[in-house]
Structures are given as C-alpha cells and as structure tokens.
From TrEMBL:
This is Peptidase S9. SUPFAM superfamilies: alpha/beta-Hydrolases (SSF53474), DPP6 N-terminal domain-like (SSF82171). Keywords: Hydrolase. Residues 386-596 form the Peptidase S9 prolyl oligopeptidase catalytic domain. Residues 598-607 have a biased composition (Pro residues). Residues 595-623 are annotated as: Disordered. The keyword Lipid metabolism does not apply. Residues 613-623 have a biased composition (Low complexity). InterPro entries: 6-blade_b-propeller_TolB-like, AB_hydrolase_fold, Peptidase_S9_cat. It holds the Pfam family Peptidase_S9. Coiled coil: none annotated.
C-alpha cells in the first residue's frame, strides 16, 4: 500500500468551492497563490487560464462570493483565528481591494445579498455591543455603512427578499425560542430549537418557508402565507431531518429537499429541476456520488462527493443540457488508491439504534487497529464523503470509526435530545458500544484502539482517557475543553446569546456544578493512565487556550505521559497547511508508538464485513 504524503492530504487543496459569476461568464474558485489559499478567476470555458484575484499572505481565504453587480467580489478574513471577521471588497475591473469593516474586535456577518438588490449587502456587526449584532446596509459602490436595525436581543435576524428586516429569533433562559415575523410569533419548545427556523422568503415576500419539527420527530418543510398565517406542508421524512432545501434562484420557491440519512435522500418538488438533476446524476452514475448544485448563475456549478475519492467539480449549462468537468479538489490524490467510507449501525446498551461510518484500510483482514474519530459540535454529525483524517488513518493501517452518537443531528429530535446533559455519560457510552460492536464482529483489535477528535471530539478524547482508560490505548485532543465549568464560563461575547442553549444542553453551572465537574476530564486526572497528545490554537475564542493548559499542567504535575502542541497563529482548529502537517505528523508518530503494531497492520484480504446489524452491545466501562 503506497503511503499518501501529509502534504497531499493536509496541505492546501489545489481547487476549492468553484462558483460562476451571476452573469454566467466567469468562474471563481479558491486555489493556492504564493502558498496561501486565495480567490482565482477564469472564463467559464477555460479554467486553465485562471489568474489570482486576491493576495492574502496569512491564513488564507475560506469564504468568498461574487456580488450580483458582477463587479464586486467579497471575502472574509480574521486575524490568526480570533473570529473577528472583517469584510473585504475587491473591484473586479481594477483589482483594488478595500476593507469595508475596518473595526478592531468587531465580527462581520453577511446576512443577505440577492439579485434584486445587486449593489447592497446587509451585514450583522457587533460594533455597538459585543454580544449583539445590529443590521447594517453596505453600499457596494461607496462602501458606506448605514445602520438599519438595532438588535433588541435577537439571536438571529429574519430578512425578506427586498432586504426588509421582518423579525428575528429570541432565546429564553429555559433554552426555548421565539420566532418573530412581523406581528406574529412562533413559540419553539426547547426540544425543537435546533430543527426549527425560517429558511427564507419567496421573491414577492408573500410567503416564507419554515423548517420545523414541532409536533413531529423529524423536521418538515412548510410554506407559510404571511397574510393569513396558513401553513402548507411541502415535504417530510419519517426518520431523517432536513439537511438542505434547494430553492429556485429567482423565485425563492423550494424545488427539492435533501434529507440527512446515512446517504442523502432528495425529494423533488419541481419537475424541471428533477429532470436536470437526473441528467447530471445519470452522467455521473458510475461514481456512486452525492451530487449538489449551485444554481445562482445561468451556468450551474456541480459538486460530486464520493466515499472514496476527492471532491469532483463540474459546470452544467441547463440551456444546452451540457455537463463539463472542471477539476477535482486535489489532483495529487489521483496517484493513490483511497479507502471507502461505509455506513454501519449498531444498538447501544439502552436499546437506541446508533449510526456511523467506518473507513477500512485497504486489503486488510481483521482484527485491525482502530481509531475512534469523534466529530465536533456536538450538534453536528459525520456525513458520507471524502474525509482527510479517515484517509490518513486507513492509509496507515487503522480502521477509522466515526460514530454519530446521540446528540448528533439528522436522525430526528428524539435522538438528538437524548444527548442533552449527556456529555461524558450516554454520549460517551455510545462510542464505547461502537468499539464493543466492532470487537464482537472481530473487525478490530480491542487492545489497539485510540480515540481522537477536535472541539467536542477533543473533549471526548480526554473523557476516554480519564473515564475509560481500559478501553483506549491512547488519546488525541485538538481544541477540546478539559473542564465543563470553565468552558461554560468562557467564550467570546458574541456567543452569549447562546448561553441558555448551552446550559440546557450541557448543564447549568449554578444548578449542576457537581455534575459538570464530575463529567470534566480534569476532575479525573488521577485516573488517566494512557498517553495523551494535546494540541491547541492560542487564539481560540470557543475553547480558550486555558482549557488545554490546565490539563497539561495537571498531567505534568502528576508525571503522566503526554505531549502538548501549541499553535500561536491558530484559533479553533488548524487552518495553516504548515500547522496541519505538523499536527498530523505528530498524530501519526503518536499512534504508531502507542498502538504498538505487531508487524504490518494489514495483510492481503478484504475489509471486514460490518453492515447494518441490530446486535446489542454488551456493557463496558462507563464513567
């Protein structure tokens, strides 16, 4: 098996996020310029003639867009991961760049921009109060900012197609939410907050589209008549939540709904769009890919996501019914055989079905060493598709286990709310039960299992080391909290509107201090017996540097085995390619040392067969 270099997996992608200008003439995408991710442009029919539009020399550009005036490009940049995003405008005719929000310590959020108002962007800025974003109108021609709405305490704003502020969402101390639209209110119970929101308005602003799980387990799509308040059900799924609603770029009317299963499930609401996408998926059927369309321009950009290869990008001209290949996100990967992500299901110790994915090393027969790679959030999930970490692990001979533990999104509100106040408890035992299930099937070696993750996943790794060191041989934490009490007390001011949500989901420090401390890895420092690798961005405003350093100091004081990597120019996660390669070099060395491989981890054969089963995992160690 050929070793895939770190720079191929974790260096800059060759291409990323292509989009076509609103007039359909120019292609824009992210690509390295002088070693840093920047925006490039080319004629739609000649991507090889691309030239750079921006010249960032820092952490690189990740978010950009072409305005509907076909003259202005916008992008956001922060400073070394501090999340104080500034908005920059580039004149595509002259190449001149200017900062539209040159304010220290202020975070810019793009609220809306559309084809009906090509010269205007509405922004959210916490310029007046650090914990609340007011609404500002940005004139693209003059860069003039005008405040149009002062925040009365909203968590988010609701704005129609004519850029009128129609209301917002307000969170309450018990974690419930009120949605305000004009003079009407919708009370959202705590259990429905994460799956109920206004998605947008029709072009004439007479209808808004509501995603809601109220009175259902999984979120549904409704059209709501503004004048009468009448709700019309447009789409629902018996099990899975809505992942995405695809709307007509001019009318704003939903044309398809994507439901978040183990593989995406798309329900079409518009026959014309269904026929176009059928032509595209028929042309790409050999890839067994999930297909996504960006239809903001007359020529669409298409992304095909497979479980065993790089992202593939195309353009599609619906007027000609013509699909044209552009490039993949990392052509260097074409030289290597990649492993495939496969869904699996097991039943947790309390009878709850839990889903996840395993990426197996190629040409291996079990039992193989494994890494439980825990997703962050935790109110997110793993999806089917290309995953750099999974490919690294599989390429080095480890099974990469990614569990959508309770609390993860996509599987309905009952499953998601089973994760409430279960940090270090049932959310953790789901991970243990996945290991038990795969061990029972002889797929993995129980003596050679590691746990790793970022953010909540980093917390889970520390919890694995502190609560269940008998299950894991080593742990890797990137930007994970070590104490739930200090985590809840910290964070950037603009995150304070989420306080009630965090207290409801994790615990209230005043009412639940003992529970929160007991579920903090720092509280069980004396129980840690396995090696830990800890990595942290110095400028992290979500999980501050102190979360890493307090457990590192405790490990050092107790003489426990650990390594610590601090990245002075990073925030929550790692963006710079050099830092990413440094981190994953340490990860690979750490795993090779502490999983104690006994000779080659793989032998000729086939990956273990682990599909959808319902065998109940036996109880293993729990905190």
């Amino acid at each position: 098996m050929t070793v895939i270099p770190h720079e191929v997996l974790f260096g800059n992608p060759a291409y990323l996020k292509p989009e076509v200008s609103p007039d359909g003439r120019s292609l824009f995408f992210l690509a390295p310029h002088e070693g840093v991710m920047n925006v490039w442009t080319a004629p739609v029919g000649d991507p090889g003639a691309a030239t750079p539009v921006t010249d960032d020399r820092g952490r690189g550009i990740r978010l950009f867009g072409v305005c509907h005036d076909n003259r202005t490009l916008f992008h956001l940049r922060d400073r070394d991961g501090d999340e104080s995003w500034r908005l920059y405008l580039v004149d595509l005719a002259t190449g001149a760049e200017r900062c539209a929000t040159p304010f220290d310590g202020v975070q810019a959020r793009i609220l809306t921009h559309n084809r009906r108002h090509p010269g205007t962007i509405l922004l959210g800025l916490n310029r007046n109060r650090p914990n609340l974003h007011d609404v500002y109108r940005l004139d693209l021609a003059t860069a003039e900012l005008t405040e149009v709405a002062t925040n009365p305490g909203y968590l988010s704003w609701i704005i129609d197609a004519d850029l009128n502020v129609r209301g917002g969402t307000r969170m309450h101390p018990d974690g419930s939410l009120t949605i305000h639209v004009d003079d009407t209110v919708l009370e959202v119970p705590y259990e429905d907050v994460m799956t109920t929101r206004v998605l947008g308005f029709s072009a004439d602003s007479s209808t808004y589209y509501l995603q809601s799980s109220i009175d259902a387990n999984a979120s549904r799509l409704f059209a709501v008549d503004v004048a009468t308040g009448t709700h019309t059900l447009l789409a629902e799924h018996p099990v899975h939540d809505i992942r995405q609603v695809e709307v007509h770029p001019e009318t704003g009317v939903p044309q398809a709904v994507i439901f978040a299963g183990d593989r995406d499930e798309r329900l079409f609401l518009d026959e014309t769009y269904a026929k176009d996408l059928d032509r595209i998926t028929t042309a790409l059927h050999h890839l067994d890919a999930e297909v996504y369309a960006d239809r903001a321009a007359p020529v669409w950009t298409i992304t095909a996501v497979t479980g065993a290869g790089p992202l593939l990008y195309y353009v599609y001209d619906p007027s000609r019914e013509q699909l044209t290949y552009l490039f993949n996100h990392q052509p260097a990967l074409d030289a290597y055989e990649l492993a495939r992500m496969e869904p699996f299901t097991f039943t947790a110790r309390d009878g709850v079905p839990v889903h996840g994915y395993v990426t197996w090393p190629l040409n291996c027969s079990g039992p193989v060493p494994a890494v439980v790679n825990v997703h962050g959030g935790p109110w997110s999930r793993n999806f089917f598709g290309f995953d750099e970490e999974a490919q690294l692990l599989a390429n080095r001979g480890y099974a990469c286990i990614q569990v959508n533990y309770r609390g993860s999104t996509g599987y309905g509100k009952r499953f998601r709310n089973l994760g409430a106040r279960q940090w270090g408890a049932a959310m953790h035992t789901d991970l243990l039960d996945a290991v038990t299930h795969l061990t029972t099937t002889s797929a993995i070696d129980p003596a050679r299992v590691a746990i790793m993750g970022c953010s909540y996943g980093g917390y889970a790794a520390l919890a694995g080391a502190a609560f269940t060191p008998d299950v894991f041989a080593c742990a890797i934490d990137l930007c994970g909290p070590s104490s739930l009490l200090t985590m809840l007390a910290a964070g950037a001011p603009y995150r304070t509107p989420l306080t009630a949500f965090m207290y409801a989901q994790v615990g209230d420090p005043e009412l639940d201090a003992d529970m929160l401390w007991a579920r903090s890895p720092l509280s069980r420092i004396n129980d840690i017996t396995i090696p830990i690798l800890i990595a942290q961005g110095a400028n992290d405003v979500r999980v501050p540097r102190s979360e890493a350093e307090q457990i590192v100091e405790a490990l050092r004081h107790k003489g426990l085995p650990h390594e610590y990597l601090l990245f002075p120019d990073e925030g929550h996660g790692l963006a710079r390619p050099h830092n990413r390669q440094t981190y994953y070099t340490a990860v690979e060395r750490f795993l090779a040392t502490h999983l104690s491989p006994k000779g080659p981890p793989c032998a000729p054969g086939t990956p273990p067969a682990v599909g959808e089963t319902s065998s109940t995992a036996s109880a293993s160690s729990a905190p």
